[in-house]
Amino acid sequence: MMRMPFSGVMRRGLFALALCGPLAVSASDVPYVPTPMNVVDAILELGGVGPGDFLVDLGSGDGRISIRAAKQFGTRGFGVEIEHHLVQMARDDARRQGVADKVTFDARDLFGTDLGRATVITAYLLPALNLRLRPQLFEQLRPGSRILTHDFDFGDWQPDRKVTIAVPDKPYGAPRSDIMLWVVPADFSGVWQWTVPGADGEVRYESRIEQRFQIPELVLTTQGLRLAVNEARISGNTLSFVINGPAGPQRYSGELSGNRISGQAVRGNGQGVTWQATRIKTGKMDIGTGGATPVAVGN
Ligand SMILES: C[S@@+](CC[C@H](N)C(=O)[O-])C[C@H]1O[C@@H](n2cnc3c(N)ncnc32)[C@H](O)[C@@H]1O
Asked: Which residues are CB-contacts of 5 (< 8 A; sequence separation ≥ 6)?
């Protein structure tokens, strides 16, 4: 059984206790606790949110994240919120701040909401809801979309980046907030083949890629030999890794399009060649099971 760190249990409990505050009016599974504005700004910065983005805030409360992004950067998008009076507050504020043409707010359940247009998702929800949400995010979001959460993560899907900032007036727990960023990975899993020029002609490579979330594992062979692969990483549609062969390290980087990867392979001496790989067998990225994780409280 998976054990939840005590601090995580404490934080959840204190977050739920924040229900007792004057703004805590939600009857949903998650209390309404607004994100402090300095945290909103840090979230938008970590996500690199800009005018070309379409931002969806899941459980949008008074709409502050969407409204700030629209005011600061001209970002479009919408919020979904299950509490009708919060949706009304958000709509009124968007109008007051002159961004009602950019952001809208819907009174509805975030589960089952179509997220397909989003390039950025923000969420300040509890861990059980995040886990329930995880399969929906993989199903609906395009590779490269960014997901930002405040304080609560997606279980065993590790964030690509995490920052902690001071929040002196935090209504629960320690006076700080964690902000996390995930970039939705493309699915590179399967068996790939390619050739690149070597000292004595073309060299043929074959690699099986197994992928759990954004972490790829490559089993790579050439001429019957298995070679070590390091620094393998996926960010959205980009795969990068380093092959340590007899001729020294070769740094690969390429973009996925269907069953092709196209990019560059650069040797230690800086000499690069075009790299194009073809997928000869399709695999399936492992995104875990989602759903509620069993929790053991206490030590
Ligand atoms: C912690 S508040 C965050 C509000 C806002 N996103 C912010 O960061 O300031 C979480 C919000 O999610 C809403 N919520 C909880 N479950 C929801 C669901 N299934 N669908 C839509 N909204 C939900 C709650 O009503 C609450 O307002």
From this structure: none
